[in-house]
Design goal:
Elements: H1 2-6, H2 10-22, H3 25-32, H4 37-46, H5 49-57, H6 61-70, H7 73-82, H8 85-94, H9 97-106, H10 109-117, H11 121-131, E1 149-150, H12 155-164, E2 174-178, E3 184-189, H13 190-195, H14 202-205, E4 212-213, H15 218-228, E5 232-236, E6 242-247, H16 248-266, H17 281-298, H18 300-308, H19 310-315, H20 318-321, H21 323-347, H22 355-384, H23 387-417, H24 427-450
Parallel strand pairs: 1-2, 4-5
Antiparallel strand pairs: 2-3, 5-6
Helix pairs in contact: 2-3, 4-6, 7-9, 9-11, 15-16, 18-24, 21-23, 21-24, 22-23, 23-24
Length: 452
């Protein structure tokens, strides 16, 4: 959204805002006329619900549908509430089935049911079939509108079929090849069909298919589509019968949404699922307050550790000066490891089965970091205070970095193994855990080295 807003000049923004403020529809229409659909989406993302409805109503009909399809489902839902029923019904019917399902998930049940009843029978059946899949499954995000060809067809027959279905197909550049009962046996690109002799059998030019099962995670299927660098990925049922297709643009949207969700949870918040400027203050507070309460309760562990070692701090007051440095370094080390492994999990580079390998690698990385930081801390602290204090700080950093890196690397894998979002166990929880255990390590080393 930031990039899209950046494409708007200050004068364009000012013209639109002034027309909205004065409710001058003629001036608003003139201000919107030179803008692209992407720029208008950016404007809608900056506007409140009333302004959004006004902006949308002055758009030309052909541009209105393109803009609506580009909006986040949450904004589509808001817009539906501000439009007349006949306008909403027409928009809803013109949407692709996968976009329609996303919007239905955002709408109140009564509104969703009314819109479904108003659809033509074919569109209603396509949409209802997708709604039958689990919420996070790729079957709910695929397109059921595709062109398939048979292996026994000639290239000329296949191209003729593509030509007949141009109007209602999601994509024609990658074509699934099926046998009886829609069983997937291959894929063929439009380029290959055009290059082949007219009498060539499709089976002779098709490739081995990569596919996704309709019930598997949408994120996993989208990741596979992106990794394979294919324009479309067939989606099949449990009997390998073709039920839909995932296009690369839909795959990228799924991955962008998953990335935003992971980043929010890594930072200790819940994802907003809508542009920032359209989110209410209440929703912003709600997305953050639960995590802050959980982490505040977790932080009492740190307080309890300090209370246990209160007498140690009283004997060597200098030790208190290094508490922020040590818990900050430990938390940052753990967070770096967790972020790296969480990203590797998302990319499919590692999985729960690699826990041992990741743990060993992060132990070595943590030890190396600890030795570097510990040696530096020992030198500086010994010069300013005394060698004994320097030894405590140096040894603590070695132990703390090793422990924090191991915990940070292992927690996302353990979370995935128990079917919990790895991002939930990333930075906030790891920081809290490392703070408490780091202080425990610090004071135990201090007692042993200083004899207190």
């Amino acid at each position: 959204m930031t990039d899209m807003t950046a494409a708007l000049t200050e004068s364009q923004l000012k013209s639109v805002e002034q027309a909205l403020e004065e409710l001058d529809l003629a001036a608003l229409t003139a201000a919107l006329r030179p803008l692209s659909a992407v720029q208008i989406v950016a404007l809608l993302g900056r506007s409140d619900r009333r302004q959004r409805a006004v902006l949308y109503r002055v758009l030309p009909k052909d541009q209105a549908l393109e803009v609506f399809e580009r909006l986040d489902p949450s904004l589509q839902s808001d817009l539906v509430g501000g439009l007349q029923d006949d306008t909403v019904a027409a928009l809803f019917a013109d949407l692709d089935p996968d976009d329609r399902v996303e919007l239905l998930d955002e709408l109140p049940a009564t509104v969703a049911a009314r819109l479904l009843r108003g659809l033509p029978a074919r569109e209603r059946d396509l949409t209802a079939g997708m709604l039958g899949y689990p919420h996070a499954a790729i079957g709910r995000r695929m397109s059921p509108e595709f062109v398939s060809v048979r292996a026994t067809m000639t290239a000329a027959q296949a191209l003729s079929r593509v030509s007949e279905r141009l109007g209602d197909a999601e994509t024609i550049y990658t074509l699934p090849v099926v046998e009886d009962e829609r069983v997937l046996v291959g894929v063929v690109s439009l380029r290959r069909l055009l290059a082949a002799a007219p009498e060539t059998a499709v089976g002779d030019v098709m490739s081995e298919p990569h596919w996704a099962r309709a019930t598997e995670s949408a994120e996993a299927a989208a990741r596979r589509c992106a990794d394979l660098k294919v324009l479309a990925l067939p989606v099949v049922d449990n009997e390998t019968r073709l039920v839909g297709i995932l296009t690369v643009d839909d795959a990228l949207r799924i991955l962008e949404s998953a990335e935003s969700e992971d980043q929010a949870r890594i930072a200790g918040t819940e994802p907003l699922r809508r542009p920032y400027l359209t989110a209410s203050v209440v929703s912003l507070v709600r997305s953050r307050v639960v995590w802050l309460l959980v982490l505040a309760i977790g932080a009492t562990l740190t307080v309890q550790v300090l209370e246990v070692f209160e007498s140690t701090l009283a004997e060597v007051v200098t030790l208190a000066l290094f508490v922020p440095l040590l818990i900050g370094t430990g938390g940052n080390t753990g967070n770096q490891a967790a972020t790296t492994v969480t990203r590797a999990l998302a990319l499919g580079d590692v999985g729960p089965r690699d826990l041992g390998k990741v743990l060993l690698r992060e132990l070595r990385v943590g030890l190396a970091l600890g030795l570097l930081l510990g040696a530096l801390a020992y030198t500086v602290t010994s010069l300013i205070y005394q060698p004994a204090i320097g030894a405590v700080i140096g040894l603590t950093l070695v132990s703390l970095c090793t422990m924090a890196a191991a915990v940070g690397g292992a927690m996302p894998l353990i979370a995935r193994a128990v079917r919990v979002d790895p991002a939930v166990f990333s930075n906030p929880f790891i920081s809290t855990f490392v703070d408490a255990t780091g202080l425990l390590i610090y004071f135990l080393i201090a007692k042993a080295v200083l004899g207190i």
